Structure prediction request, 157 residues.
Amino acid sequence: MNMAYKLKNQLLLIVVCSFLQSCTAINKVVTNDSLNADELTASQRLQISIPLPDESSYVKEKTVIFGEGERFSGSLFLLHKQNIDEIVQFYRTNMRNDGWDEIAIFRSNFILINFNKDDRFSTIKINPRIFNTSSSEVTVGPKTSAEDDSFDESLTE
Prediction:
């Protein structure tokens, strides 16, 4: 009887430890600790010349930014507390209000939206995440000219 009691206690201890470890892993995913996400500051928002959803955090390891303001180029990886539909609506409305023309939208298990403004382009990929949240990867850069395309043709000859 004493041996069965010890075995039950050991089994209970293993189950409790496994449960606590699972809770810690889920908490890291929910709070984005595993991705080292930081809130965007006001000066960072000014550096990036496109509308960004409130309460977005960015992942440093997946973000590359060159220039600022209207000359901003790069890729910005954002985590959002809002669901995918709210983020898609935000970008479609606010990018247009900021003077960007929507070129195309592609829907699959993610959503891809292309925009055009003057001599620049933007591609925004929005993904669903767990617990009804989402992420987006925003890429902005200069468009190439017709002269640049002729350079590509000379490489294939």
